[in-house]
Design brief:
The chain is an alpha/beta fold. The structure holds 2-acetamido-2-deoxy-beta-D-glucopyranose (8 copies). Belongs to the peptidase S8 family.
Length: 738
């Protein structure tokens, strides 16, 4: 297959590069470098293993010349050592019984999939061996199982609790990384692009799965862009694939079937980067329903918020029992410069892997190149079939709108420039050299074109820039408030979702635009789809430290430890970023958690007007709503605070919350409320919580009172014991839409 040839080519280039270095540096085969000889766990009662390592080397090499170069012996948990060896010697050691593996002690490149490092979650973070007991169910477009990101080197068989399976004879093989894979297509209709198997023909599912739990892949890049080590947040966790999306979309029937299986199979976390475009009632939405049943089985569902931003109330996954994730930027951005014949250079945004080698090409405005049957009014936007091939062939076309680039490519253009006033916070890929410019630069280019006889231009391959303003929420990220229950703040938090490099399907092209023929093992894409698996991974990471925590406890930990973000950079404030920016490392030690279980969600639904009968049907047990609907039904113990007052600007609201101590047994937490001075008063009672044991629960009330004229005002409550800062946003708003 062409695709496999491509990955082979990468492999060959990779080795070719190393070979070239060896030759130019005059390094010979006999030169030594340091290797790690790994021998698994320490043997029981093993003493003085350093001497065992030495004698092992003596046995193999028959002299003490090698033993002198032992650099380090592992002594405590791991059995193994670091030693200087030639390649031949390394091979020899690898064959010795008891040796699990021998690998070069290379310097890791701290970059790429940049997003984890950006959050301070380095390759070296403390990890639990039980991470490989954590199973992330990924409901998506399937997976490309041969991707390096899914190799299972060093992973044992699936955990005992795993009850899922892998289909036989569908040209798809599971391993100890991808431990299960199913596909769902209730209508039985398949397009010619669809693999009738869990295999991913799109790339999306491969990308999300590898972002969550991909292994480390060195020197991953998209044609040199984003070069570094690609990795998921939990490289040892298992992936269970549930293919629910096909070339025509993702159907509710299939989504629910996948939830049904995933829950029974024993996944720990469900990652679902799929959503509708309109908000649905909680029990008319396959995702909300599926996630509700997952919650009943102590499985947390992590959802993308949606890509319908930046308008208010555009979020589509917002049920209280799921974790809804917005998308924000990281500090790496891709810039694509354009040079005109007059030497002036403009900087646009795109992911341009093409290299025009500084060659100048004629430049033309789409408006001046309408097809016979088209008009300048549509050719200026480079819409389908609008351009005249004879006029644009071999040229760079300027379009007055950000479009896919398929029309310029189809009409024979060599490149395209898009100029409009759309936000340029996301770099997109196009099937031809292209850059997205703002309208100021666009109009300067028009002046140049109009005033120059043989106007020309070139487009450079993209450069990586440092976005020092990051993180901020991307314009496309769907915003709150929650359209069904305004009193539950959504989204819950934000995570990296812009220009993320991760694994890709080898049959899908870089831009996914027809005419593009670039097939790649890694691709850079954006969306809340990309931020969601970052949070799924962080949830799995928590699970590996706290296997018994409930889905709400994990969610609370992620929310209360999120890094605060600035409303100065994000005009929608909490409606854009919820509790703030994901901080996986902090989330394993939150101090306090806002826990809730099934009965709390049922009570919440009762308050929302869902009757006992409906809830009985949902749960199929003797679930009943408490008699009284007002006041006596406890608040949902949510880790954030939101008050919506539609009718009046006078606010009087009491939140009742209970926190569970998961930090030090003896801990005194003091409350600290930050809120804009003026109109509203916030009181916390009691304002000190003194714990004497782990697992102890204490309740408190937060009272919001006063009048507000602003459409939205927000601040925070922090419980602080000197070690933990348990932070929750407090949002008061009087209008959903502005
Ligand atoms: C199996 O998948 C590979 C990878 O895409 C493809 O090249 C091959 O044609 C498939 N074989 C069958 C029998 O579908
Ligand atoms: C961007 O700049 C900041 C601050 O100077 C630095 O900490 C960070 O590592 C840089 N990021 C990249 C991707 O170079
Ligand atoms: C004009 O558009 C039609 C499709 O509407 C296409 O078939 C034709 O090739 C185009 N002609 C030129 C000169 O680009
Ligand atoms: C360029 O010329 C076109 C007519 O060919 C005109 O419509 C347009 O306004 C001119 N643009 C500028 C910036 O001068
Ligand atoms: C414009 O291009 C034509 C054809 O390539 C060439 O003959 C002419 O000299 C050029 N004119 C200028 C001013 O560069
Ligand atoms: C419900 O609220 C009303 C008004 O606050 C109150 O009069 C009534 O007693 C409450 N009912 C119950 C059962 O608490
Ligand atoms: C707040 O919740 C706690 C625990 O559920 C409960 O004991 C207490 O009565 C509640 N207080 C109010 C005012 O609802
Ligand atoms: C409360 O929080 C603010 C802002 O984070 C901080 O400046 C202040 O020192 C805190 N106060 C106490 C008593 O901890």
């Amino acid at each position: 297959m062409e695709c496999q040839r491509l990955s082979l080519l990468h492999c060959l280039l990779f080795h070719g590069l190393i070979l070239a270095l060896l030759v130019t540096n005059g390094v010979s085969q006999s030169d030594k470098k340091s290797y790690v000889v790994y021998m698994g766990n320490q043997p029981k009662g093993g003493s003085s293993t350093a001497s065992l390592h030495t004698s092992m080397l003596q046995d193999v090499f028959g002299s003490d010349s090698v033993t002198k170069s032992v650099l380090y012996s592992y002594k405590r948990t791991i059995n193994g050592f670091v030693v200087e060896l030639t390649e031949d010697e390394a091979r020899k050691i690898a064959g010795v019984s008891g040796v699990v593996s021998v690998f070069p002690n290379e310097k890791k490149i701290l970059h790429t999939t940049r997003s984890w490092d950006f959050m301070g979650f380095s390759e070296q973070v403390q990890r639990q061996t039980s991470e490989s007991d954590v199973i992330i169910g990924v409901l998506d477009t399937g997976i490309w199982p041969e991707s390096e990101s899914f190799n299972d080197h060093g992973l044992g068989p699936p955990p005992d609790k795993w009850k899922g399976s892998c289909p036989a004879a569908t040209n798809f093989t599971c391993n100890n990384k991808i431990i299960g894979a199913q596909f769902y297509r209730s209508n039985g209709l398949f397009n010619s692009d669809d693999f009738i198997s869990p295999r991913d023909s799109d790339g999306h599912g491969t990308h999300t799965a590898s972002t969550a739990a991909g292994r480390l892949v060195n020197r991953a890049s998209l044609f040199g862009l984003g070069t570094g080590t690609a990795r998921g947040g939990v490289p040892s966790a298992r992936i269970a694939v549930y293919k629910i999306c096909w070339s025509d979309g993702c159907y509710d029937a299939d989504i629910l079937a996948a939830f049904d299986d995933a829950i029974a199979d024993g996944v720990d976390i469900i990652s679902l980067s799929v959503g509708s475009t309109i908000p649905n009632d909680y029990f008319r939405d396959s995702i909300s329903i599926g996630a509700f049943h997952a919650m009943r089985n102590r499985i947390l569902t992590v959802n993308s918020a949606g890509n319908q931003g930046p308008g208010r109330a555009t979020i589509t996954n917002f049920s209280p029992w799921t974790l809804s994730v917005a998308a924000s930027t990281i500090d790496r951005k891709f810039l694509t410069r354009v040079k005109l014949g007059n030497g002036v250079i403009y900087e646009g945004v795109s992911i341009n892997t093409f290299d025009l080698k500084n060659k100048m090409y004629p430049i033309i405005h789409g408006r001046n190149a309408p097809n016979r049957s088209s008009t300048p009014a549509s050719s200026r936007f480079c819409l389908g079939n609008s351009l005249n091939r004879n006029l644009v062939k071999g040229k760079i076309v300027v379009c007055d709108r950000l479009v896919s680039g398929s029309e310029p490519l189809a009409a024979g253009a060599i490149g395209a420039l898009f100029q409009d006033n759309r936000p340029r916070d996301v770099a997109r890929s196009f099937p031809l050299p292209a850059s997205h410019l703002d309208m100021v630069d666009g109009s300067r280019i028009f002046v140049y074109i109009n005033s120059t006889r043989n106007a020309s231009a070139t487009i450079f391959k993209s450069d990586e820039g440092n976005d020092t303003m990051a993180p901020y929420v991307a314009s496309f990220s769907s915003r709150g408030p929650n359209p069904i229950t305004p009193d539950i703040l959504k989204p819950d938090l934000t995570a990296p979702g812009v220009d993320i490099l991760a694994a890709w399907s080898l049959v899908s092209t870089v831009s996914e635009v027809s005419g593009d023929d670039r097939l790649v093992p890694f691709n850079i894409i954006s969306g809340t789809s990309m931020s969601c698996p970052h949070v799924s991974a962080a949830a799995a990471y928590i699970k590996s430290f706290h296997p018994t925590w409930s889905p709400s406890a994990i969610k609370s930990a992620l929310m209360t430890t999120a890094s605060p973000m600035s409303s100065g950079m994000n005009s929608d404030a909490e409606f854009a970023y919820g509790s703030g920016h994901l901080n996986p490392l902090k989330a394993i030690n939150p101090g306090l958690i806002y826990d809730s279980d099934e009965v709390d969600y049922v009570n919440f639904l009762c308050r929302q007007g869902y009757g006992t009968r409906l809830l009985e049907q949902v749960t199929r047990d003797d679930t009943t709503c408490p008699e009284a609907r007002n006041g006596t039904v406890p608040d949902l113990n949510y880790p954030s605070f939101s008050v919506f007052t539609s009718s009046s600007t006078t606010v009087s609201h009491v939140f009742n919350r209970t926190v569970t101590n998961v930090g030090s047994p003896m801990a005194v937490y003091r409350s600290n409320v930050s809120f804009p001075t003026g109109a509203l008063k916030i009181r916390v009672n009691p304002d000190v919580l003194s714990f004497t044991s782990v697992g102890e629960k204490l309740s408190f009330e937060v009272t919001v009172e006063g009048t507000t004229v602003e459409s939205m005002v927000s601040g925070s409550l922090v419980w602080d014991d000197g070690e933990h800062r348990v932070r929750s946003p407090i949002v008061v708003f009087v209008s959903i839409s502005t």
